[in-house]
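[Q] Does anyone have a clean structure-token version of this?
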Amino acid sequence: MTSVQSSLKSQCRSLSGHGFSKPAAVLAEIADWCKQHDCEFEAYGSGDLIESFERKIADLLGFPAARFMPSGVLAQLTALRIWSDRSGCSHFAMHPTSHIELHEESGYRHLYGLTATLVGPRKSPLLADHFDALTETFSTLLIELPIREAGGQLPTWEALEALKHSAKARGVRLHLDGARLWEAKQFYNREYSEICAGFDSVYVSFYKGIGALPGAMLLGPEDFIAEAKLWQRRAGGTLQTLASNVASAAMKFDSAIARFPAYFARTISLVKAIEGLDDLVIMPPLPQVNMLHIYLPCTPERADAARDQIAAEFSLWLFNKANQGDSANSCYFELYIGEALMDISDPLAAHVFARLLAIIRAG
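[A] Here you go.
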């Protein structure tokens, strides 16, 4: 993003996510919350602030233990390495659009000595039939719920249970990439502990849907978490304090979780308002979570230029960067329906998208 685009973005409100915030306001809110709750700095992962929050999330997801970590990358690679060591097998399986595969520079291979098989189609969920067709030996099957790169798609409850059964039947550990697990509850209409049942370990994020400062939680059996703490230290992830990050997550968690039904309802309402626009494609057509992909009939460069024009006309920032679609003249961007969209009406959103398409058509 150029400096001109960054300046333009700074003058806009966001369509996606929870809106833009300044560090001073965010940190002041955390400071007030810490004062109200008489918080003390935790030290190297020990202390009431972090341990009480770990217990809370462990109870919610139905696990004996949990560990707050500074990043999901650290949490997930730690889990994969532990299950690999325990099984004596350095090979695991994952969906081809897993964050571990696309966005982490093959850290699982270079840093942890692991190898992977990609399983399932890129544009839809991983199913038991896909896994059962593989003949290799695996330590772990990594499952992402929902799949971000497929527009937030989820397998049906029956399909998820079948996949869990297939992995267990082969003695393969199950790890859940739950970066957006909080969003999945609306689709399954089940408690988080029910969704997580059958997984050997789970990772969840607090900076995405929750909207907190960076931070992640790794959950599993007590001996697994004890070993995870060792790997966290080995990887340089045991910081002297994570107090501000933990406090941010603890402060926002309950209110954020309570808002997801409203975000999902807003998603369905928005889709109904814009689904009739010519040349605009929504994936999936019927959203399963408060996230979707919007496809446009142009190159990513043309979409980015049209985004800038919309920003100048409406003071509304639609997306950061368009991604290449399946053809040369197709692109898409992710839209996450959060707090930012709650005060933007359907008629206004439809008008903005219609204008975006008009700008694209005009070339």
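[Q] Thanks! Anything notable?
[A] The chain has two domains: 3-21+259-362, 39-241.
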